[in-house]
Amino acid sequence: MTIAAKQELSFDQFLEQYPEDGRYELVDGEIVRILATRQHEDIADFIADAMKDEVKLRQLNYKVSDRIVLATQTQAGKEHGRNPDVSVVDLALWRSNRLAYAALQEPIQLALEVVSTNWEDDYIDKLDEYQRMGISEYWIVDYLAIGSRTYLGNPKTPTVFVYLLDESGVYQSTAFKEDDRILSRTFPELTLTLNQILNA
Q1: How does pLDDT run across 122-151, given as a tens digit for each residue?
Q2: How far is CA 192 from CA 46, 96, 103, 187, 197, in A?
Q3: How far is Cα 103 from Cα 81, in angstroms, rounded to an integer?
Q4: Which of 18, 129, 144, 149 lies at 20 to 30 Å from 99 by C-alpha?
Q5: Phi and psi for 87 in degrees, rounded to 5?
């Protein structure tokens, strides 16, 4: 008896089969639904709103969205489709093909992930994929201090990590806690702290 191997979806096939009833990612050839708690959603929405306000106030040429799917690649060369909690993309890139799906194969300006119980995805897998894609800025918002002590210290405390791509294409990170003003290359005048996010 022969058992047929399950066919892994390509990124294009993932987009064609993308369900209409929520947020999904392509991981190791399979469509995976993203389910978040209400607190997780509130935090992502609060940060997205702060960034949208900054775009309007400073008249910046960015689109801020939670529905953009990114075509990423693993170290092993597998195609993934990631859907960050918040994406910031240059308007010129976004408007370059307005009839296309809300999916991009080019690097965006900023990707943000709010950490869930599968924290390794954000700290390890997505970090590597976003760096490989060339995304200039990546935020990890670990509001429940779920990540390991390697990242958060001992005792573990809620932290926002901002990773900035350097000239050699490698992320350099800075950790922000409590009332530290979160420093962003994309939004240099943004005044936002972790405590404000936690009170969202």
Answers
A1: 999 999 999 999 999 999 999 999 999 999
A2: 10, 31, 28, 10, 8
A3: 9
A4: 129
A5: -125, 140
